[in-house]
UniProtKB/TrEMBL annotation:
Keyword annotations from UniProtKB, A to Z: Membrane, Transmembrane, Transmembrane helix
Pfam families: DUF1003
TM stretches of this protein: 48-65, 77-97
Name by which UniProt lists this protein: Putative membrane protein
The organism of origin for this protein: Actinomadura coerulea
Superkingdom, taxonomy of origin: Bacteria
Keyword Transmembrane: yes
Amino acid sequence: MTTTRQMASRLDQPRELRRTLLPRPHYDPESFGRLSERIARFLGTARFLVYMTVFVTVWIGWNLLVPSWLRWDPYPFIFLTLILSLQASYAAPLILLAQNRQDDRDRVQYEQDRSRNDRSIADTEYLTREIAGLRVAMSEVATRDFLRSELQQMIREMDAKKPVP
């Protein structure tokens, strides 16, 4: 007798469809990943730091310098703190998602580099064996310098054997 927990953990059978009250949102992970990379790339720029500095300065300046009836976030700036915390709580996971995607790309690039390097090593070893084989074969073949030296030796021997008139 199997329990429902054992049935759920079996990999050879499809899962039962679970009905939920609210439908699950569907999204394209690749598009979401690209968007998160664009946001993370922007968050890491000097332009973002300048924009945030201007935003915080204007916010604090407005809430310190304008009449009290126009202020929406008085001195402890609790609303500003809440906004910055919310921005940070979204920025951190987006940056992590972008880093994970970059790690995946780096891993693929590393594997491609490794296989290319393995092929290059195999090609180099093959060429080394071929050159060694050619050297062995060339040691049995007469070279141009060898032939010249032999011909010059024969000419000297013939000159030495010539009768003097």
